[in-house]
Design brief:
Blueprint: H1 16-21, H2 44-54, E1 56-57, E2 63-66, H3 67-73, H4 79-95, E3 104-114, E4 117-126, H5 128-136, H6 143-165, H7 174-199, H8 204-218, H9 224-230, H10 245-264, H11 270-291, H12 305-319, H13 323-328, H14 344-357, E5 363-365, H15 366-372, H16 381-384, E6 386-387, E7 392-393, H17 394-404, E8 418-421, E9 424-427, H18 429-438
Antiparallel strand pairs: 1-2, 2-4, 3-4, 5-9, 6-7, 8-9
Helix pairs in contact: 3-4, 4-5, 5-6, 7-10, 8-11, 10-11, 14-17, 14-18
């Protein structure tokens, strides 16, 4: 196994925002306890309080830690040894094309030396990101370092969410947490599949095995089919869609850490990639056992998140419409929002009608429908990928089938919701009534 030499700084091949996005969104109480498992006096709670209590504020209200305080928190008896970790952190900061002076500020502080005496000492003021980099470059044999690596990463990302997107994870409802985490899983899974492909996972069968290995590590040897059976889900159900926020966070952490391991360790070969995914899943499982003792397969099954997303999408679209307009028309022109995951073959026609309902005269061409639909529904890599032999994607073919299968009894044109016009579709009164009812508040 390749390891980073002890005297080399830990750097990253991605920027700060991306680094933080790779950290699972979870409650501080759920921070891994592995690092603190054999600390007889220092519990996770006391460590959490100690880190937060050590934070100070500038006159402008900006948060910082002092290097001397942080050295003690991270278990360094010799401040000079701690400064070695600080220098590595600065090097890592430069490697990401960031100016260390923006995160590490050299200062001179006065300290008490006994009998009322005071003297000047060199110190450093570190922001939360600097603390994160120091933890990443600290002595991994120290339990406090292992704890801090998780703690600062999670807390930094939480602050980023609050500052940039107004997302306060603690204030979200369970359904809102599920929606947020499920979208994160979709995004991070794309990164994982890209990393897996670079490692040699190329065929559909390879990807199926690779995905199953991650589940097997996390779920005690159970693959997708076994998880579905254990949780009494239908064979066609997407198990991720029926996970609560805790279980989604565990899977998100499995996904992000596997992707990072494949890239940082330069893992080559589909078998080695599968082994890496299994090992990360197993590690997350061990962490859950130590934290709560509840295994992911025993967490409660939740309502299909697609149903929740659909309800949220209806509300988002309807909130922008005046009450009188809701009576007079199905929808005003909808605003773009996060695409929802649906069963494309079963439900795409409903969103086709939605798009038609806000078009002039209720008409749209097939090409325009293909271009517009991704603003409403999420496309997997498999559906979006172009078929080399047909110069078409699976998704665009499904859209075209809405028209070519118009004589099928289950087709929305056959059922009278839309009409087949030259080059496209036109919604009917029946279709407008359906949209009004289906997408109502």
């Amino acid at each position: 196994m390749n390891r980073t030499p002890k005297d080399e700084p830990v750097a990253f091949d991605f920027d700060f925002d991306e680094a933080m996005q790779r950290i699972a969104q979870t409650n501080p109480d759920e921070v891994t306890a592995i690092a603190a498992a054999d600390l007889s006096e220092e519990t996770i709670d006391t460590l959490l309080r100690a880190f937060e209590d050590a934070a100070r504020k500038t006159d402008e209200g900006n948060e910082f830690w002092t290097a001397r305080d942080l050295a003690k928190l991270l278990g360094y008896a010799d401040y000079r040894n701690f400064l070695t970790a600080v220098e590595k952190a600065k090097t890592a900061c430069r490697a990401m094309r960031l100016d260390p002076d923006d995160h590490f500020v050299d200062v001179t502080d006065m300290i008490e030396i006994g009998k009322g005496g005071r003297r000047e000492v060199d110190n450093i003021h570190l922001d939360r990101y600097a603390c994160y980099l120091v933890a990443q470059n600290g002595d991994p044999r120290k339990r406090q370092i292992s704890f801090a690596q998780n703690y600062f990463a999670i807390q930094t990302r939480r602050q980023e969410l609050a500052d940039e997107h107004g997302v306060d994870f603690d204030t979200l409802s369970e359904n809102q947490k599920r929606l947020y985490l499920r979208n994160q899983v979709v995004a991070e899974n794309k990164r994982l599949m890209s990393a897996a492909r670079a490692s040699g996972v190329v065929s559909g069968a390879d990807f199926g095995k690779f995905n199953n290995k991650g589940y097997q590590g996390l779920y005690g040897g159970r693959g997708k089919a076994e998880i579905q059976q254990y949780k009494r889900l239908p064979s066609g159900a997407n198990i991720l869609d029926h996970m609560g926020s805790t279980e989604l966070a565990a899977n998100l952490f499995r996904i992000t850490q596997t992707e990072e391991k494949l890239r940082s360790k330069n893992i080559v070969g589909k078998e080695r990639a599968c082994d890496a995914h299994y090992e990360v899943g197993l590690k997350v499982r061990q962490t859950m056992r130590e934290l709560s003792g509840i295994m992911p397969e025993d967490l409660p099954v939740a309502e299909d998140v697609k149903k929740i997303a659909r309800q949220e999408r209806k509300q988002q679209r309807m909130r922008a419409i005046e009450p009188q307009q809701r009576i007079e028309q199905p929808l005003s022109e909808p605003k773009a929002s996060a695409p929802v995951e649906i069963d494309l073959r079963a439900d795409l026609w409903k969103y086709a009608l939605l798009i038609m309902s806000v078009r002039p005269d209720g008409e749209i061409s097939t090409a325009e429908m293909i271009a517009e639909m991704p603003n409403y529904v999420h496309l997997s890599e498999e559906h979006a990928a172009t078929n080399a032999s047909r110069k078409d994607s699976k998704f665009s073919q499904i859209v075209r089938n809405l028209k070519s299968h118009k004589n099928t009894k289950t087709n929305f044109i056959y059922r009278g919701y839309a009409r087949d016009i030259q080059g496209g579709f036109k919604i009917t009164r029946k279709g407008l009534d359906f949209v009004r009812e289906y997408f109502k508040n």
